[in-house]
Design goal:
The complex is a heterotetramer of chains A (144), B (129), C (664) and D (262). By secondary structure, chain B is an all-alpha fold. Helices cover 49% and strands 0% of the residues of chain B. Helix content of chain D is 44%, strand content 11%. In chain D, helix 3 packs across helix 4 and helix 5 (119-127) packs across helix 6 (129-135). Classes of the chains: A alpha/beta (144), B mainly alpha (129), C alpha/beta (664), D alpha/beta (262). The A-C interface holds A 9, 11, 16, 20-21, 23-24, 26-28, 30-33, 35, 38-44, 46-52, 55-56, 59-61, 75-79, 82, 86, 118 and C 70-73, 96, 98-101, 103-107, 110-111, 113-114, 117-118, 121, 515, 523, 525-526, 535, 579, 597, 599, 631-635, 637-639, 647, 650, 652, 655-656, 658-660, 662-664.
Chain lengths: 144, 129, 664, 262
């Protein structure tokens, strides 16, 4: 049996106005980060339902990161504050379930922070990779 | 300029004052009733503690001129509370051995028959350990 | 089942250099719903777009995935392409394989692998896309301006000049606001009345403008383009349309001991009054708190002397309902109360005054006809101390001062000091400052002139205590540069009081569902890019209600707000963003969770009749999203405990499909 | 009604008047002052240093005794009031300090539950000035009296919360209640010099003089105070109008002054 090299799977939710644009800027500046990071565009970080995060872990994601505008800069004035509160609660619950805090993160990345986006993703991917595969919710996984 | 980091941290911890909040308006010194008796004035206490230049304060008579009237505390627009810093520096000075500013044998020379006990105990609290 | 076409772009070598585009289009061919897949050098080019159009027709495509650059770049392009081929533009999804793939990864294998996954996610999403149509709503072509100071006046004039009707609601009996009380204006020193009163007359004469003075907004319903507003017109006991403003009544009124608020209580007026000579509308108002006729039923003198017969003691408050397309808030500011600052003895001496009182004292139309005298004894002051930042930049105690810089005080204090020295060279003038802030055209030059040409003594330091003693004010202050405590015997002390938003702003913000900061200043939709719009669609901000401002800034913002209003009113219909929230009423339990998180007030509740399985009907409270107001952030979708609330274009099922595709 | 009472050292010696008249008057107003048993000197000044523990223990013990009787603690000397109230505040707000203090407190812990009133606050908020007005038998009508607050009663305002620290009225309202005319002057909340009288009599003289001059310029015929040290400084430094404790006027107004043998 061939042993496949472990590659973490990371889902990144990025708000359309700041962080998705920050990711674009990272691309414009050719700032590399691991291909393990896959971005899903949402209008605002507050669109991210805890259910989405759970779903990702259930389906085998090793890390989930949510990026939004900096506090006070939200395109919708207050969405990222909701994100901060909701995710703080969710992450501590996940931690309790055994999904380490290092596998979850909320980060503020502005449209001007391409470098920060790349650095954040590099750092996050490294931390997640160090933890190894996330098997915690495997039993709940809907395997085909 | 001498930068005494250890003492600076100690003073900040003792007093609970954050000298960085100061915006240099000088209202503390404007309101101080003991200003003219002081070599270093309330705003300078804040500024010098912030920069770690504390040795001159420790040696200064200004420490024993503060009336603890708290006018600077109440009137500071930024909530810096300079009198608490003065108190901390004074304690740092008199807690050193043999550094009491007031000794019991000096007291009788300072008294008249009307002086209330309150003045004597207060002076001891402020000037001696 | 959708019939999806996949179009992979090479972007020259930008994508094709790191991603095997052929492999991507091949791989995506096998995804569910995909009936056509191809790749091309430049999808955004005319030729590329034609490939898409042709494929839509040929393969009867119902959905499209373009694997290309960022959607922020060309999403709009491809949506137009789809629309041109008869496909709903919202059936297009972009997989970003350039900025977020080929440009950040170096290895062809990794890049291709990721591009395929991103493509799959987009296909999974399109499978669940539904055609969306932006809603349309009509626009009432009338604007409401709340507040009749210089901000409101300028906004109203600009809107009216563009041909739209405007109503100004002003709570005082006259428009004019704070500027009407000022003497001269910095940095040019032209007289405030000379430049303001012609504008007030313009307002009065403009056919497009109606003034509701002595009135307040009491209710606001509706949304952008369609506001329903109720205005309460206070009874002024004078028929506005008949009163000629001759002033005979004010002269005959026996009740002459009413503190004159226009002069900040420094002199008195009569119970029936016209605030000042150039008031607009120039009609009298009876103050019901002081009028003997209204209080005791005895007097009636004003009615006797009124030749026009305008006095009506039976007048009642009147409520007016009107529809508006846009609302401009221009509620302005007030100096804060000096009650908590009695270290400066404001409550203990008449000769300690605020800067606004100083304006009235030096104004030719003021209580002293412009002669600068001490309010206590009418004597000429020889030494004047100005204290800046009284209550501004004060973070120690929220009930005492304001943490922000009030912005205008440095300049008006320089003006007061300069004018005093100019008019009364025998007067010694001291200004105590923390910092002198003069960022504005010709501002610093103005301040320096006060120092260098007019000999004003600027002292870096603050006043600590003012002690009235005899006929002097003993000022104890610090001079930080000289490292001295100063003791000055002053005749007059002038406090540059911090400014705060008018008290009426907070209840108004609630009515408008417009957001405010902790200081009760209205929040702008974006601090840099949308400074005159409130986050609530159709509500605009003008003047100091949004933050401390001087006159030039206020006028520019007023004009900017007007142009935004004109842009809105010029449209016959408003096309909304179709990606808005909507609630499934069958699942909604009316809990209000969504309403509480909505920053736009887009969600309301309706009692709806539902048919139950047993053929009875039941009335339930359900959430209804107003698509014209919703901006599509999605906060409500997460707050909703029952899952009734969803967001079009970013539906939960769509995002989960993307998650699943990525995690496969 | 019964309240716990902390007289303080000076009131047992140089300022007996302040104490005796306070008790008599309270009795006449229906309040019994129950002196705390075995109280010790408050120390005269509150050290703002958070690591000064020993100097605050006597205050905490007094506070705890009041708590054990479920009574508010009333003080009359400004200095005692300031020290005890600030100590109580520190016990409520500074957990680290409170736990250090509680190591030295016998029988259980104290966490700042006692309410601390100054006698003037008791008059204003418990008895009520309207009630006091009704009980005045010897009115001071026509007398122009200046209230001298000094610093200790009012500052720091965030803790003392007695009145507006820059324009207080609690003593002026008291003066009105006993029928006299209050004289408002700006220096009434400035320092008399306090304990500096020992170290630098010149500074005390300067500070006190400024207060006296300001009061006189405003037309005062008499100054009242709640602090023995303020009274000492003002008299010592040349007050040529009477400086008396407010409790003395209160006792006289209530007609109980003669009963005392102070």
């Amino acid at each position: 049996m061939q042993v496949k090299e472990y590659k973490p799977l990371i889902v990144a939710f990025c708000c359309n106005w700041c962080s998705y644009a920050g990711a674009d800027l990272a691309g414009n500046n050719r700032l590399a980060y691991p291909a393990d990071v896959k971005i899903i565009r949402v209008p605002c970080s507050c669109r991210v339902n805890p259910m989405f995060v759970l779903r990702a872990f259930q389906r085998g994601a090793d890390g989930v990161i949510i990026c939004g505008c900096h506090p006070g800069d939200c395109h919708y004035t207050s969405g990222n504050y909701y994100t901060r509160r909701r995710m703080a609660a969710l992450f501590s619950m996940l931690d309790y379930l055994g999904i380490e805090k290092e596998r979850t993160r909320v980060e503020w990345v502005s449209a001007a922070e391409g470098a920060k986006f790349a650095a954040t993703m590099n750092d996050f991917a490294e931390k997640v990779a160090a933890l190894g595969e996330n098997k915690r919710l495997e039993d709940l996984r809907c395997k085909k | 300029m001498h930068n005494n980091k250890y003492l600076q941290e100690e003073l900040i911890r003792m007093s609970g004052v954050n000298p960085k909040k100061c915006m240099r308006c000088g209202k503390c010194s404007a309101t101080c009733p003991a200003y003219d008796e002081m070599e270093y004035h309330p705003h300078q206490f804040v500024n010098m503690v912030e920069s770690g230049d504390i040795e001159p304060l420790l040696a200064s008579k200004s420490l024993y001129r503060c009336l603890s009237c708290f006018a600077c505390i109440d009137r500071c627009p930024r909530g810096v509370e300079p009198a608490k810093l003065v108190e901390a520096v004074r304690l740092a000075a008199i807690r050193q051995q043999g550094a009491n500013h007031l000794t019991a044998d000096k007291v009788p020379t300072m008294l008249d028959e009307d002086i209330p006990q309150q003045a004597i105990v207060s002076a001891f609290r402020k000037y001696s350990k | 089942m959708q019939r999806i076409g996949v179009f992979v772009c090479w972007c020259g070598s930008n994508i094709a250099g790191t991603v095997d585009v052929q492999a991507v289009s091949e791989a995506l061919k096998n995804e569910p719903g995909v009936v056509f897949s191809t790749n091309y050098q430049y999808m955004c080019s005319q030729a590329g777009q034609n490939i898409i159009k042709d494929a839509i027709a040929e393969h009867k495509l119902t959905g499209i995935v373009v694997c290309s650059c960022s959607p922020r770049m060309h999403e709009a392009t491809f949506r137009k392409t789809a629309a041109a081929a008869g496909l709903n533009p919202y059936m297009v999804e972009i997989a970003n394989i350039r900025e977020q793939c080929s440009w950040v990864h170096k290895d062809m294998l990794t890049g291709t692998e990721k591009a395929i996954i991103l493509g799959k996610a987009a296909v999974a999403k399109v499978n669940l896309n539904t055609p969306l149509t932006a809603g349309e709503s009509p626009v009432t072509k009338r604007a409401l301006v709340i507040g009749g100071g210089i901000a409101g006046i300028q906004t109203a004039l600009d809107i009216a000049d563009a041909g739209f009707p405007v109503d100004i609601v002003e709570k005082k009996p006259t428009i004019g606001g704070k500027m009407a009380q000022l003497d001269k204006t910095f940095p040019t020193l032209d007289c405030a009345a000379c430049i303001l009163t012609p504008k007030m007359v313009d307002v009065a004469q403009n056919e497009n403008i109606r003034i509701f003075s002595y009135s307040e907004v009491t209710e606001v319903k509706g949304f952008v383009g369609n506001f329903d507003v109720t205005i309460k017109k206070h009874a002024r006991f004078v028929k506005e349309d008949i009163c000629t403003g001759c002033g005979a009544c004010t002269e005959k009124c026996p009740m002459k001991k009413v503190p004159n608020e226009f002069n900040l209580g420094m002199d008195n007026r009569s119970a029936i009054y016209i605030p000042f000579a150039q008031a607009v509308p120039k009609v009298a108002t009876i103050d019901p708190n002081y009028c003997n006729m209204l209080k005791k039923g005895k007097c009636g003198l004003c009615a006797k002397v009124c030749a026009a017969g305008a006095i009506d003691y039976t007048q009642k408050d009147e409520y007016i309902s009107e529809k508006y397309g846009a609302i401009v808030v221009a509620t302005g500011f007030n100096p804060i109360s000096m009650d908590k600052f009695d270290e400066f003895a404001y409550n203990q001496s008449k000769d300690v005054i605020t800067s606004l009182e100083f304006e009235r004292l030096t104004n030719a139309a003021g209580p002293t006809a412009g002669k600068l005298v001490r309010p206590s004894d009418g004597k000429h002051p020889h030494t004047i101390v100005f204290v800046q930042c009284v209550g501004s930049r004060c973070s120690a105690c929220a009930e005492k001062g304001k943490e922000y810089c009030s912005k205008i005080c440095c300049m008006y204090t320089a003006k007061h000091a300069m004018l005093t020295r100019d008019k009364y060279p025998d007067t010694e003038v001291y200004v105590f400052y923390i910092d002198v802030r003069t960022p504005g055209k010709n501002f610093d030059e103005f301040y320096r002139r006060a120092v260098e040409e007019f000999g004003v003594n600027y002292i870096k330091g603050m006043v600590g205590k003012v002690t009235p003693e005899g006929d002097k004010l003993k000022v104890q202050a610090s001079d930080l540069i000289a490292n001295k405590q100063l003791h000055i015997d002053a005749d007059l002390v002038v406090l540059a009081a911090a400014i705060e938003p008018d008290k009426s702003a907070r209840p108004l913000a609630t009515m408008l569902t417009a957001s405010m900061d902790t200081n009760d200043f209205f929040t702008e939709a974006h601090p840099k890019l949308r400074p005159v719009e409130s986050p609530t669609a159709g509500v605009f901000l003008s003047g100091a209600c949004q933050g401390p401002k001087d006159i030039p800034e206020t006028v520019s913002q007023a004009g900017a707000a007007a142009s935004k209003v004109i842009g809105l009113l010029a449209k016959d219909k408003l096309t909304g963003n179709p990606c808005v929230a909507h609630s499934n009423e069958l699942m909604c339990n009316g809990c209000s969770s969504c309403e509480r998180v909505c920053p736009y007030g887009a969600i309301s509740y309706e009692d709806k009749e539902f048919r139950m399985p047993d053929r009875t009907t039941k009335i339930r409270r359900v959430a209804v999203v107003n698509p014209a107001v919703c901006q599509g952030c999605g906060a409500c979708t997460v707050a909703c405990p029952s899952g009734a609330m969803d967001l079009k274009g970013f539906a939960s099922a769509q995002i989960i499909a993307e998650v699943d595709a990525i995690c496969k | 009604m019964k309240v716990s009472y902390f007289p303080g050292c000076t009131l047992k010696n140089k300022a007996k008047d302040l104490d005796v008249y306070a008790r008599k008057s309270a009795e006449a107003l229906g309040v019994t002052l129950e002196e705390i048993e075995n109280w010790q000197c408050c120390g005269g000044v509150f050290s703002t240093a958070r690591d000064e523990v020993a100097t605050k223990l006597s205050s905490v013990r007094a506070l705890k005794e009041a708590a054990s009787k479920d009574q508010p603690l009333v003080t009359v000397c400004s200095a005692c009031h300031n020290v005890i109230k600030q100590t109580n505040h520190a016990m409520q707000t500074d957990k680290e300090f409170a736990s250090k203090v509680n190591n030295y407190i016998a029988d259980g812990v104290y966490e700042g539950e006692t309410e601390v009133y100054h006698y003037l606050e008791m008059l204003r908020d418990v008895v009520g000035y309207d009630e006091l007005k009704k009980k005045v038998v010897n009115s001071f009508k026509g007398k122009k009296i200046a209230a001298y607050y000094g610093c200790l009663l009012l500052r720091p305002n965030s803790v003392m919360k007695m009145d507006d620290p820059e324009n207080p009225s609690i003593m002026e309202d008291f003066i009105s209640a006993i029928g006299a005319t209050p004289v408002v002057y700006a220096k009434r909340n400035e320092c008399c010099g306090g304990y500096i009288a020992m170290e630098s009599p010149e500074l005390a003289k300067k500070s006190s003089n400024a207060v006296i001059e300001n009061a006189k310029a405003a037309g005062a015929e008499m100054i009242i105070t709640a602090c023995p040290l303020c009274r000492y400084n003002l008299i010592k430094n040349g007050a040529d109008i009477p400086v008396v404790y407010f409790t003395e006027l209160l006792a006289e107004a209530l007609g109980v002054k003669e009963d005392t043998n102070a």
